[in-house]
Write a structure and sequence with these properties.
It is built from three helices and four strands; from the N terminus they run βαααβββ. With about 90 residues, it is α+β, with helices and mostly antiparallel strands. Helix 1 crosses helix 2.
Amino acid sequence: MELGMIYATSGVAERANQRPAFRAELSRILARYCFGDWGDLCPEDWEQNNRAVLAGERILGSYHTSEGKVWIITEWDRSATTFLFPSEY
C-alpha cells in the first residue's frame, strides 16, 4: 500500500521521542496497517477501509498502545500518512 510521506502530530512525536518502547509500538502498528490490519475498528469500518484501498479513498486505522489509542490516517491521494492521538484530530 502506498503511504506517501509519514508524519506524526506533535503529541505522538513528543511521546515517541520520550519513550522508545512507544516508538517501537508505532513501528509495529504501521507494519500491521500496511498489511491491511486496521486495528480496533468495527467490521463495517474494516470493509470501508478495504474498499478505500482499491478506490483511492482515505484510510483510517485505530490501535491501542501503551500511550492510549493512536490513529493512522492515509490521505485519499496517498500523499501522506499521519500518526495521531484522537484528541489531536
